[in-house]
């Protein structure tokens, strides 16, 4: 027998973290964007509406979690996922083997919430959220939402096997150019998230200066990432590297690794070293390390920037599902 509840208090959401981690670890479709280390700081920092998270229990075990909130708009209240905008993938969590039952329970509780639109964006292929149905819900609108270019990894030598020859030549030229400038070193820094983040802020800002200034230019986004990075690092989920030429740190890479997938989330470099391509050096290093750790896919995440396809990535599309109902229901 399942029971469910709506969590509308931030302290109660944070208190759920130990059980939440257990469910996340078991969920077949979970990504780092569904774990409490990501979503708790998001809510703590932004809290753009009324928390309306649905928790599903089987006895004392948490078997389903739908982190939602209610946003009030002039056209009516919208039920949205916690983590929207900054998360490349969004989904609900369901315990394996009972996904359909848990999804139905989530839908039942969602119908008790006063919304005019229920929106699930950025659902990856196979997402548990795609299975949500209910007799009182119409089918909903399902459309392609965003492209996430992904490089398939075959074997431990991914650069030689999976990356196009042209990109490999460009990468060799970048290493030679950097070597002419000075001594090149790529340093793992996931054990020092605070120090890494200061470099990331500086280099991301330098990379995007005059071009929108980048996501970290927003003080709230900076604070969110500062909190999330430390929590993710404590769980061993982040992969952070810096590249230095002599004593100058000229590039930063911020990514994740979970199960057999690596995620390239954010980066930056010093434009004074653009000819040395520190960003490419770091991505090449990240792909090699992902392969060494057994990753089968290197996910460049949302956005169709040209450089991603140069590495051999191919689009995988997320879906957006929307239910609409009149407020009289």
Automatic annotation (TrEMBL):
Residue ranges the record marks as coiled coil: none
Domain BioF2-like acetyltransferase residues, every copy: 166-308
UniProt keyword annotation of Hydrolase present: no
Gene Ontology molecular function terms on file: transferase activity
Xref: InterPro entries: Acyl_CoA_acyltransferase (IPR016181), BioF2-like_GNAT_dom (IPR038740)
Domain of life per record: Bacteria
UniProt keyword list: Transferase
Protein name (Swiss-Prot/TrEMBL): Glycosyl transferase
Source organism per UniProt: Mesorhizobium mediterraneum
Source species taxonomy: Bacteria, Pseudomonadati, Pseudomonadota, Alphaproteobacteria, Hyphomicrobiales
